Amino acid sequence: xxxxxxxxxxxxxxxxxxxxxxxxxxxxxxxxxxxxxxxxxxxxxxxxxxxxxxxxxxxxxxxxxxxxxxxxxxxxxxxxxxxxxxxxxxxxxxxx
Length: 96
Prior knowledge:
By secondary structure, this protein is of the alpha+beta class. The protein contains one helix and six strands; from the N terminus they run E-E-H-E-E-E-E. It has one helix spanning 31-48, and strands at 11-12, 20-28, 52-54, 64-76, 79-91, 93-94. The strands form two sheets. A four-stranded antiparallel β-sheet has the order 2-5-4-3. Strands 1-6 form a two-stranded antiparallel ribbon. The radius of gyration is 15 Å and the shape is globular.
């Protein structure tokens, strides 16, 4: 919903079961690059979501419209230029 937190997003089950896609990863870069990465994802969670396209090399997940369900990150021990993160995405069609 415009101006609302992403937890109030409405998903419509038009084409079957709603899917959750979980991604665990490590992102490396300068402090500024890591800050940009975190800020962009947290902006989506804070209500800026209208659905984004998730692209994967796995044919069953290719080009799905998703919403960010949760995002957690932490510094990688011993390396201030890396963060580990877990991103959960929900596949669905957004209500307008």
